[in-house]
């Protein structure tokens, strides 16, 4: 890893980080009267190796990977970007097929060394450090379950469903904090606001927006800041920023409290919004939402980390930690750029693998062509690896929640399976739990069932739309 980092990233390499740490450690040790230069050099090198190992482990702890190599090679877990139908309005277009019935049968891909993968060809120009900056892919590194549930391959459940027409220029734009925010609106009636997951956009709701609008609702879908067709703003990304965006959107654009619906990190965003801004939410639907439960050991872990930071590790500069993180994120990004890997990961989280079509795979790269996408990717990933400054556990947010809650869960999700839905139901007993035989994105994999569940649930409270 050090050799690869040195070759590709120069001053941001792990070697440079280790050298800087060694120098600082030697300087600290030389201040002691009983330490000579040779001993300081030896101890400094040992401390440098220990610090680099600790920084690696810190990243692994935040992402729940077992090894640093696993972090690199499995970095596009949870990439659920939008599929953008370019030529068809209906689901009758060609499919990408797989030779394997499920992910468990697929052979393990062996990745060639980076040097051999960066030889320039007519089809693939030579990769440089600038490639990582200019063409970053917005994805999410996440913990994979120990076992992926096997699902039988079946026919698509949305063959005849009308899809939201794809517009390369986008639909509507709302000015928020001097940034352009992209959104779609269809239908008339009670308002519903759909919020996508990490790396996705409004087009991930392609089979939900038209059908929910026909069912008698006014359906909004919005791209969060940094995603889709919304501006790639150079801001400090965090959950509270997206909470404010959703709340202001409901207030300024929708004009009345709405039912908030979110998938993956979009689910966590709408939960945070409904729990802390009850004035904008009349109901909440979570589709395989992200977020963590409280840990009984969290306070003890904090004490241990605080004690460690009082050692020489705590004297590391912010620049060193940032440089190391940039190396790690850039390496994971390189792996995320491989089309075969994108296809493999998406197939592993869709029970019906035929839903992973060529448009879905190709659309993952589309938002990355916008200016600032590389820096936005780094900031987003850094935010996800950072510990929140306030308590945003699911336990805390569910205690504050006061509106009707629907848990629309794909039980075959290898990341956030059925047990997570059960735990949320336990913490919020009045919630309605609807299970679907689908993966991480049940709204896109099984849209007919998902749409029906949302409509049925919304008829249990508030005004029922006329048929």
Automatic annotation (TrEMBL):
InterPro entries membership: AB_hydrolase_1 (IPR000073), AB_hydrolase_fold (IPR029058), Epox_hydrolase-like (IPR000639)
SUPFAM superfamilies for the chain: alpha/beta-Hydrolases (SSF53474)
Coiled coil feature spans: none
Name of one Pfam family that matches: Abhydrolase_1
Stretches assigned to the AB hydrolase-1 domain: 191-447
Name under which the protein is recorded: AB hydrolase-1 domain-containing protein
């Amino acid at each position: 890893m050090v050799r690869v980092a040195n070759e590709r990233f120069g001053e941001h390499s792990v070697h440079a980080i280790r050298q800087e740490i060694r120098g600082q450690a030697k300087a600290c040790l030389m201040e002691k009267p009983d330490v000579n230069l040779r001993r300081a050099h030896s101890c400094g090198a040992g401390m440098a190796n220990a610090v680099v190992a600790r920084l690696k482990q810190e990243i692994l702890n935040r992402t729940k990977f077992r090894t640093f190599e696993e972090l690199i090679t499995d970095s596009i877990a949870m990439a659920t970007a939008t599929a953008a139908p370019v030529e068809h309005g209906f689901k009758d277009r060609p499919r990408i097929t797989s030779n394997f019935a499920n992910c468990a049968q697929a052979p393990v891909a062996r990745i060639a060394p980076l040097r051999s993968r960066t030889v320039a060809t007519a089809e693939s120009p030579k990769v440089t450090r600038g490639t990582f900056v200019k063409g970053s892919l917005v994805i999410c590194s996440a913990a994979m379950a120990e076992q992926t549930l096997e699902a039988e391959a079946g026919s698509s459940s949305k063959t005849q469903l009308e899809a939201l027409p794809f517009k390369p220029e986008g639909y509507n734009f709302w000015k928020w904090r001097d940034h352009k925010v992209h959104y779609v609106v269809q239908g008339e009636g009670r308002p519903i606001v759909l919020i996508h997951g990490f790396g996705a956009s409004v087009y991930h709701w392609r089979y939900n927006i038209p059908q929910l609008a026909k069912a008698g609702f006014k359906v909004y879908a919005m791209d969060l800041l940094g995603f889709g067709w919304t501006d790639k703003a150079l801001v400090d990304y965090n959950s509270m920023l997206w909470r404010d965006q959703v709340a202001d959107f409901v207030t300024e654009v929708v004009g009345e409290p709405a039912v908030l619906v979110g998938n993956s990190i979009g689910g966590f965003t709408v939960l945070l919004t409904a729990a802390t801004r009850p004035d904008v939410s009349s109901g909440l639907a979570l589709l395989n939402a992200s977020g963590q439960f409280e840990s009984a050991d969290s306070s003890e872990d904090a004490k241990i980390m605080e004690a460690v930071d009082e050692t020489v590790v705590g004297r590391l500069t912010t620049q060193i930690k940032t440089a190391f993180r940039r190396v790690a994120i850039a390496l994971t990004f390189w792996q995320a750029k491989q089309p075969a890997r994108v296809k493999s990961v998406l197939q592993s989280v869709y029970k019906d693998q035929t839903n992973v079509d060529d448009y879905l795979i190709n659309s993952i790269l589309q938002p990355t062509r916008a200016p600032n996408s590389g820096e936005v990717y780094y900031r987003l990933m850094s935010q996800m690896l950072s510990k929140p400054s306030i308590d945003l556990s699911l336990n805390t947010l569910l205690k504050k929640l006061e509106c009707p809650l629907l848990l629309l869960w794909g039980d075959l999700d290898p990341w956030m399976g059925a047990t997570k839905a059960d735990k949320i139901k336990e913490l919020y007993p009045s919630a309605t739990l609807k299970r679907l035989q689908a993966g991480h994105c049940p709204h896109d994999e099984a849209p007919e069932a998902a749409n029906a569940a949302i409509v049925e649930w919304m008829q249990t409270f508030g005004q029922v739309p006329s048929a």
